Amino acid sequence: MRYPKMIGLMATAAMIVTALLGADSASATMLEVAGEPKNEKVTITASLKAGTTAVLKSTSGEILNKCTESHIHGNTQSPYKSTLVKGPVTSLSFGNCTKSVTVHDPGELEIHWTSGTNGTVYSQGATITTRVDSPFFEYVTCRTHTTQHLGTLTGTGSGHATLDVLAVLDCGAITSARWEATYTVTSPTGLGSVEGTTTLEVAGEPKNEKVTITGSLKIDSTTSLKNTEDEIGNTCTTSHVHGNTENPYSSTFVSGQITELSFSNCTRAVTVHTAGKLKIHWISGTNGTVSSEEAEVTVNLPFIGYATCTTGSGTHLGTLTGVSSGHATLHVKAVLDCGIIPSAIWEATYIVTSPTGLGSISTPGTTLEVSGEAKNEQVTITASLSSSSSSSLKDTDGFSQNTCTASHVHASTQSPYTGSSVTGPISTLSFSSCTRLVTAHDPGKLEITRTSNTNGMVASEEAEVTVRVPLIGYVTCDTEGTTNIGTLTGTASGHATMDINAVLNCGSIPSAKWEATYTVTSPTGLGVSA
Description:
Elements: H1 8-17, E1 29-33, E2 36-37, E3 43-48, E4 54-58, E5 63-75, E6 81-82, E7 85-97, E8 101-105, E9 108-113, E10 119-124, E11 127-131, E12 139-143, E13 148-154, E14 162-169, E15 177-187, E16 191-193, E17 198-202, E18 205-206, E19 212-217, E20 223-227, E21 232-245, E22 250-251, E23 254-266, E24 270-274, E25 277-284, E26 287-293, E27 295-301, E28 305-311, E29 315-321, E30 329-336, E31 344-354, E32 358-362, E33 366-370, E34 373-374, E35 380-385, E36 391-395, E37 400-412, E38 418-419, E39 422-434, E40 438-442, E41 445-452, E42 455-461, E43 464-469, E44 473-478, E45 482-489, E46 497-504, E47 512-522, E48 526-529
Antiparallel strand pairs: 1-2, 1-6, 1-16, 3-5, 3-15, 4-5, 4-15, 5-7, 7-9, 8-11, 9-10, 10-13, 11-12, 13-14, 14-15, 17-18, 17-22, 17-32, 19-21, 19-31, 20-21, 20-31, 21-23, 23-25, 24-27, 25-26, 26-29, 27-28, 29-30, 30-31, 33-34, 33-38, 33-48, 35-37, 35-47, 36-37, 36-47, 37-39, 39-41, 40-43, ...
């Protein structure tokens, strides 16, 4: 007898290991413990949340099996800082189940950061057999052959992180099944993941703007829908997809609405009810993983009639192989929830006909925030020299050339408001109550790049100021190209602080050092987020 392949219980365990993963920088994922990134092996233990059960049920709601005990144990493995972090599950167990469960291979987990300290969790290589006592068969075997979306990791700065499993499983010859469970990460406490950023690029240039994408089924290929026993249910030789990305264009993932999804020249009728959305997560090079949300298609199948296949809150579809020139490729191999029929596998290869040179990259992520809320919009900033302080310009030997006790700056950010850095023109730059005359010819631009927490590095572009100095007369100091001038210490409430400690190019005199501390008077609660 053929045992169906069901991603079932094993998936749950896999999920738990997921906790192993995290993210540290915009270009990588890293695990963190108690707010501290861990570029090293982390051992994780998780158990089914007290008072809850792990449930395997059909999509119609029939309970197939449930357990009140489950434990997982695993370790992250090198590289501990990467696009995603993976780790083998060394122990996976289920107890107090209504029917027997045997774990053949606990598999491994990987996680992608999504927001805050949270992440999405995937499993691969896990195999579990569970007894179901169906009228047609006694046991089913569940596997995660490729990367299977399992659920979410809700991280925390202290206490216990949570793994919520909510997955549609590949159940082979039985009805598609849903795996539902909630695990508590008992060790380490304070487990979480940190930020990573995806940006689409066209011809090698990052696009922090809307990108319109058109794709067609690869010539001389087919798109097929078949059950997990490799029995073909339907094939089509023509298929097209068209959609646009939507703001934010640089984030954990880039998503957008599919405006057109069509299938034709099919062996049986296919009707697209809802095209849904696509999500792209960068993984390496110019490549990304692709997921679908809220798509719904009805397919005519032999013996059964019509079956409706859907992608719920985020079904893993396949991979985007990006290019710097020519046509990118979308390889689809996904397990779909098709309701009354066995879980179905959709396979296809699409060529991205427009734009040419499409790819995804990982970019440093910077967004200004006000009172803890990220602002993907223009922010106007006003700052003044801090009370009872002065702005000094002195040569690199420490000899003071000029001091001012009053200074003001006014600037506004400009689009893109989320990216590797946030920039904007300075409309006002003034100095007064100075020991010697200071004239601002060009206030230039301000650039802020996130460094950690709500803080950032501040740079100046193309500013030019003339200062009178003793013995020499007038000298002009400027920020050629982009000059790092100091740091922004952000805050969720009250006034942020800008500390200036910069070496300026002052032409005829030795390079001069500018030192000052500014208080950001508006907006209050200014900070920098990922």
